[in-house]
Amino acid sequence: MNQTDPLSEALGNVRLSGAIFLDAELSAPWGFASPPASAGAHLIAPSAEHMVLFHLLVEGRASVRLPGQPRLALEAGDVAILPLGDAHELWNGRGAELTDSSALLPKILEGAVVSERGGGGGPVTKFICGYIGCDRQARRFFLAGLPPLFKVNIRRGSTGAWIESTLRHLASDREPAGAGRNALLAKLAEALFIETLRRYMSELPRQRTGWLAAARDSAVGRALGAIHREPAHPWTVASLAEQAGMSRTVFAERFTRLLGEAPLGYVARCRMQLGARLLESTDDTVLEVALNAGYESEAAFNRAFKREFDVPPARYRMQRRRGDRMAADSGAQ
Fold first, then answer.
1. Within 13 A of 204's CA, how many CA atoms are on the CB side?
2. Name one Pfam family in it (predicted).
């Protein structure tokens, strides 16, 4: 049976846009209080439906926590990920006065990486902050089941160490930005995020559930890869169980336990994702989109699409294209 990579298949079917917005070198005590990403997402990444935040600790130590939660200690090489973009605090040193990070927004909107230097004269911490913008399907696929805050040390693998080194060099470069620098930083931010997911997935305890746990499962992972590779295929529980190399009953039970939904319900969501992407990226008629997404009629597609997105396909296409034009106009200013 062919080897599959469900994470790559899923990532290939969602829209990601990364960015680095802060390069900091601060001496303790220092601290930031950050509002939820949703507070500024419409300004920073207008075309993104969801925003993931991350902090890469390059040197020294720091702590991060969600409101009312225990702190998570960070050391060099750690990437702290906030999949839901929740409000949080990042600091080092006792008695650190927390600065509202939203004060950095005007500089961030200028498009350059904001450089912060200073602090109270104690031990130095160097870190890089960024975000990943994505469509809402990402939250329902590979972000599903993740804790609201977690860390991964990317220096434990050669790929992560290379990404960190390159990102650190580009983000801290004080020379005037050359052509394509911001685009390169964006791609490195995406690479860092994907490497973090890969590392987290490999370190998951066996008892964990969620999308990454399902993708790591050798049997269910094969079925996931097949679904994301060909969402329009007329999948049945039997044909998916064959992909997994299991009986239908055992496959359906394991799939549902890991992902929290039945196999054919998951297939339907993947088809909706494909349909949405075709509406955004092609001029195909709604009927053509419906057929290419695995539906036998336009009416069936319309009903399923409205259940998923709350609007019919034609209106969805109009709204998305209007939003993309507004985002493009905003970026040009």
1. 22
2. Cupin_6
